[in-house]
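DM from R.C. (forwarded with permission)

"hey, sorry to bug you on a friday — could you get me a structure for this? deadline for the figure draft is monday and I only need the backbone to look sensible"
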Amino acid sequence: MGTGLVLNVSIDGKQVAAVPRGQTYSGSISPGQHVVSVLLVPNQLNLRPTQKRLSVQAGQTYSFTAMWQGNRVLLM
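My reply, with the result:
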C-alpha cells in the first residue's frame, strides 16, 4: 500500500476502523455470520471494497492481512 493511504475496515457494513499502513486493528465480534470489508482511501482507482465472509465461532481468534495483488486489495 502506498504512502498516505488508510485502510477502512467495516464489519457488516459498519466502519469500525481506519488503519494506517503498518498498523493493526483488533476488535471483538459476536459469533455468527459476518462480512468483513476493506477499502483503501483515498480511493483514486475507484476500487470496490474487498469483502470476506466468515462464520465466527465463540472463543476463536481470526487474523487477516491486507495486501495488494495487481490492482486490488486482498484479505489473506
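R.C.: lifesaver. The first strand starts at residue 6 and ends at 11.
me: no worries. The mean pLDDT is 92.
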